[in-house]
């Protein structure tokens, strides 16, 4: 893989625990024994430069709760962290950056209020904002549910891709919700579609990653990185091996 392709081991937190949801369903949760900070330190020891940290409680209800954890990860691991969940205001973005975030991930608000988020890109810089467009195929088109994937937004993926490409966005995280947490493989066709529609964006693939071959396939489809969740937690492959392959 070429230089610049990044891997983002993911830690999703709910009620203070490390968890994974199946297809974004809060009722289909798998809990893991390792506490979030312990897991972050393990990923750092394996050589990870980045961490993807998600506040699942805030993603549904608003009000990011992981600032103390974020500060400890920042000071104790040396990893760069992109994090989000429930980001609703400019003050939220400022608070996360001050707590040690390298990038703030904005999901639901990026769909509901794109003009607001475009303003944050201008104010904080494109390198500090990651827009998360979480997509589900509905009647032949890609739609963007919000509020922890529990509400329909009525907004299509192509509309938001065009908007944020024009707004100067650099970092886009796109998840196929129906693949998330399934270990069914990423939707490579989706990432090829995004690469063709918005070639200037650095896209992070997310959802369904099961092995190192999937990571390579996402890179070949035009992605600049991949988020690794359940496969790492379930021990499907070693993070150090994936990092070594990504660096080749």
UniProtKB/TrEMBL annotation:
Principal location: cytoplasm
Pfam family, one: His_biosynth
Uppermost EC category: isomerase
Domain of life from the UniProt record: Bacteria
Reactions performed catalytically: 1-(5-phospho-beta-D-ribosyl)-5-[(5-phospho-beta-D-ribosylamino)methylideneamino]imidazole-4-carboxamide = 5-[(5-phospho-1-deoxy-D-ribulos-1-ylimino)methylamino]-1-(5-phospho-beta-D-ribosyl)imidazole-4-carboxamide
E.C. designation(s): 5.3.1.16
One of the record's GO cellular component terms: cytoplasm
Active-site residues per Swiss-Prot or TrEMBL entry: 12, 134
Single GO MF annotation: 1-(5-phosphoribosyl)-5-[(5-phosphoribosylamino)methylideneamino]imidazole-4-carboxamide isomerase activity
UniProt-listed GO biological process terms: L-histidine biosynthetic process; L-tryptophan biosynthetic process
Biological or metabolic pathway of the protein: Amino-acid biosynthesis; L-histidine biosynthesis; L-histidine from 5-phospho-alpha-D-ribose 1-diphosphate: step 4/9
Subcellular localization: Cytoplasm
Matches recorded under Gene3D superfamilies: Aldolase class I (3.20.20.70)
InterPro entries referenced in this protein's UniProt entry, alphabetically: Aldolase_TIM (IPR013785), His_biosynth (IPR006062), HisA/PriA (IPR023016), HisA_bact_arch (IPR006063), Isoase_HisA-like (IPR044524), RibuloseP-bd_barrel (IPR011060)
HAMAP family: HisA (MF_01014)
Family per record: Belongs to the HisA/HisF family.
Record protein name field: 1-(5-phosphoribosyl)-5-[(5-phosphoribosylamino)methylideneamino] imidazole-4-carboxamide isomerase
Organism for this UniProt entry: Marilutibacter alkalisoli
Organism taxonomic ancestry: Bacteria, Pseudomonadati, Pseudomonadota, Gammaproteobacteria, Lysobacterales
